[in-house]
Each structure stands twice: as structure tokens, then as C-alpha cells.
Specification:
Elements (H helix, E strand, L loop, with lengths): L38 E4 L3 E4 L4 H7 L5 E6 L4 H17 L4 E6 L4 H6 L7 E6 L2 E7 L4 H17 L5 E4 L22 H11 L3 H14 L4 H16 L4 H10 L4 H13 L3 H11 L5 H18 L4 H14 L1
Parallel strand pairs: 1-7, 2-4, 3-4
Antiparallel strand pairs: 3-5, 5-6
Helix pairs in contact: 2-5, 5-6, 6-7, 7-9, 7-11, 8-9, 9-10, 10-11, 10-12
Length: about 325
């Protein structure tokens, strides 16, 4: 599997959503796509997708291209990508709608889209899914991929335009009843976010390390460093490569650490914890320290108050003592 954004026209229908919905395709009892520029009244350009409501967006994709972002709410890189997607969606002014899916809360959608890691971005055109890219890409690449999706949609007659009901209020970019703006990020955090946004993980790591050196109690920087370090470890490696190596060497420390990274990045938190905690007793002292350090990073990424972290921390303590 390539790490680069694929051409959507080569992947139309690459994911089978038949388990979620059985809808007629164009030419099979359905009117097909929308007429050029046909207005489609919607309350917003931005939606939250769930296992329960996703059929609505498959129906909507018959008229307007739908972009689906499968993200983990606790991951800084996922939030950075969400900001880029919000901006692209606003700039296109109704030519697409954006659906955010929380991978932790919606396992059926994660399975349907075959999302092996998060963030993952897909499109839906005429009820058919299109795999777009995995990971937090730079904004110019995101715009290029969305432009290809729009070309594919036009080829399939899906050219409707979302018309937002002003009374309902927009989400990102709305003027009425906007929440108070969030305080600006500290300079080094902002520097790290910008680096993540352009895919420069070493620069983000350096910014977070500098922030921690200046304030060792900076929990946001500690968690951010753990998150971007995970992304850096996965960069340039394919899913098949990582999983095949782990399957071939079930007791190899580095192979299992890599696949645990992959599990966590895809929102499979319990799987990542269990893999490393099961491996831990079989290792020598050096291997145990490496696994312990990785688990502590994972705890920061998921959040120390998460109940899954509490259980894993207790299990690790029992193995240590």
C-alpha cells in the first residue's frame, strides 16, 4: 500500500459498504447524480458521522460529493488535519460536504472503510466509496486530492451544490452564535502544529522537545511529542509490511512495537496495549524497558484519565513488581 495519496479514479468502489446500506446505483432504479449546480438545501457543510446515521450521507453522495475523515479525537495530528479539511470545505463553498467520524466510537464504519490507521480520509460519490489518503498530509496535497475527487464526481454526474440554510447556522466559519475563540497556542506548540500540517515530523518533534526543556511539566507538549513520534515511526512504511513482519516474528520486540504503533494509530487502543503487555514477560531486561517506555508514550497519547489507560497501567505495574 502506497504512502502517497492515490488517484481516486483508480480506487472507485475500493471499499465495500454493502454491510451498511443497500442502495440502488445510478441506472438501477435511481435518478443518478444531481444536475449541474443543482442546489441541495442542508443545515451545514459539516457533519458528525456515526454507525447509526451514515446511510444519510450515502444518500447525499448521489447529489454532492461527500468527504469522510476518520479521526481519533485525542490525536493532535488528527486535529491538525481536521482544521485543513474544514478550510478546504469552506473554500469550496458547497461543492463538497465534510463528515467527521470518530474511530473510537464507530467501529462499524472503521471496518467498512478498512481504515487501518487514523487519520484516514475517503470520499463517497454516487453511493460508492473512494479511498483518498491516510495520514496528515500538507494542505496543498489535500486540495489536490479533493480536486481529483470533484473530477470523478463530475464524470459520474454528481455536481450538486450545498445551499446552507442561514437560519440553521454554519459550523466552522459561521458568524452567528459563534463560540468564543480559543486562546492562541503557545509559540512552540503552534510551530509543532504547522510542522505536522506540512508533514515535517522531525521539526514537530524538535519543537515539542524544546517546549518540554523549557517547562518539564508541559503535559500538552509531552502528549504531542508522543503522538508525533508515533507518526514519524510509521512514516514511509506500509501497513502490509508492518503486519507481515509482526506475523512472521511474534516474539520480535521491534516488530511487535511497530504493529502496536499501527494499532494505536488506527484507534485500536486495547489491541495495542494487550499486544505489548502480553509480549512484556517474554523479554530480557532491555526489551522490557523498551516496551515499558513505549507503553508510557501510549498512555500520554490516549490520555492518562482514559479508563483503558488505568487498566493497562495496573497490568503493567503487576508485571513490573
Amino acid at each position: 500500500m502506497s504512502q502517497l495519496p492515490p488517484n481516486p479514479t483508480n480506487l472507485r468502489g475500493a471499499v465495500d459498504l454493502s454491510g451498511l446500506v443497500n442502495r440502488p446505483q445510478p441506472g438501477q432504479g435511481d435518478a443518478g447524480g444531481a444536475a449541474q449546480g443543482e442546489p441541495v438545501e442542508l443545515p451545514s457543510l459539516f457533519f458528525q458521522g456515526t454507525d447509526a446515521n451514515f446511510n444519510d450521507f450515502i444518500d447525499l453522495s448521489m447529489r454532492i460529493p461527500v468527504v469522510v475523515a476518520l479521526t481519533a479525537s485525542w490525536a493532535d495530528p488528527d486535529r491538525a488535519l481536521a482544521t485543513v479539511l474544514d478550510r478546504v470545505t469552506n473554500d469550496l463553498a458547497g461543492r463538497i460536504v465534510l463528515v467527521q467520524v470518530d474511530v473510537d466510537a464507530n467501529p462499524q464504519l472503521v471496518q467498512a472503510f478498512q481504515a487501518q490507521s487514523a487519520p484516514a480520509v475517503a470520499g463517497i460519490v454516487s453511493g460508492r466509496p473512494v479511498q483518498l489518503f491516510t495520514g496528515a498530509l500538507p494542505e496543498d496535497q489535500v486540495r489536490d486530492v479533493v480536486a481529483q475527487l470533484l473530477e470523478l464526481a463530475a464524470q459520474n454526474g454528481v455536481t450538486g451544490m450545498a445551499q446552507v440554510d442561514a437560519a440553521a447556522g454554519e459550523t466552522p466559519g459561521a458568524e452567528a452564535d459563534e463560540p468564543a475563540p480559543e486562546p492562541p497556542l503557545p509559540p512552540l506548540h503552534a510551530e509543532a502544529y504547522d510542522a505536522i500540517d506540512r508533514g515535517d515530523y522531525p521539526a514537530a518533534i524538535a519543537a515539542y522537545k524544546t517546549a518540554i526543556a523549557q517547562d518539564p511539566r508541559d503535559q500538552m507538549a509531552i502528549a504531542g511529542l508522543a503522538q508525533v513520534s508515533l507518526l514519524a515511526r510509521l512514516a514511509g512504511r506500509t501497513l502490509d509490511e508492518i503486519r507481515n513482519a509482526a506475523a512472521a516474528a511474534p516474539h520480535d520486540r521491534d516488530a511487535q512495537l511497530a504493529v502496536a504503533d499501527l494499532d494505536l494509530s488506527g484507534g485500536h487502543v486495547d489491541d495495542a496495549f494487550d499486544r505489548l503487555l502480553t509480549l512484556f514477560p517474554t523479554l530480557d531486561a532491555e526489551g522490557k524497558e523498551a516496551v515499558r517506555a513505549r507503553l508510557l508514550e501510549f498512555f500520554e497519547i490516549v490520555g492518562v484519565d482514559d479508563p483503558r489507560v488505568g487498566k493497562a497501567r495496573a497490568r503493567l505495574a503487576s508485571l513490573l513488581y
